[in-house]
Amino acid sequence: QVQLVESGGGLVQAGGSLRLSCAASGSIQSVSAMAWYRQAPGKRRELVAGITFGGSTNYADSVKGRFTISRDNAENTVYLQLSSLKPDDTAVYYCQAEILADGSSWSDYWGQGTRVTVSS
Length: 120
What we know:
Elements: E1 2-7, E2 10-13, E3 18-26, E4 28-39, E5 46-51, E6 57-59, E7 67-72, E8 77-82, E9 91-101, E10 106-110, E11 114-119
Parallel strand pairs: 2-11
Antiparallel strand pairs: 1-3, 3-8, 4-5, 4-9, 5-6, 7-8, 9-10, 9-11
């Protein structure tokens, strides 16, 4: 069984910073691409940033230059550094990973979400 557990969300003032973490655990053979999504109230879930096993990254236009995604392959962990936060960044942030688990095929796994609230 595979689990993704996020941490690091919270309440922050506009202009502030947060660092989100997401650790994958369980019967994992390999982890491929990892990503962060977010869902604001009344809106669809959207991709924030993604990172390949080799470290190539991509970002939503709305967060370029403010957010940084990184990963630790040895720990099966992905991070999202959020800087220069705006009230529009308020959302529940979810991590997602493509994982090959024991006795299974490659599948997408999701964390439970961590809430980020940015006050003006």
